[in-house]
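Q: Given only this backbone (73 positions), what sequence would you predict?
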């Protein structure tokens, strides 16, 4: 997993500030002539403290452990 982006978010109800990290999972593929390339497979979002996030809309997430909705600012 490679860290590809960091951004700030805010709690919808609480107004609490959060730091979000986006990781990209990739697979490596080799062609017949030996060229190896990485292909993105999926993105994983988490808070800087390691808590998992589920995206539910563009720029909107739910903190898995608490159910709090947050949005990108």
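A: Predicted residues:
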């Amino acid at each position: 997993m490679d860290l590809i982006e960091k951004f700030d978010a805010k709690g919808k109800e609480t107004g609490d500030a959060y730091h979000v990290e986006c990781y990209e999972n990739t697979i490596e593929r080799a062609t017949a002539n030996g060229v190896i390339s990485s292909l993105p497979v999926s993105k994983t979002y988490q808070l800087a403290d390691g808590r998992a996030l589920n995206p539910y809309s563009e720029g909107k997430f739910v903190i898995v452990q608490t159910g709090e909705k947050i949005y990108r600012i």
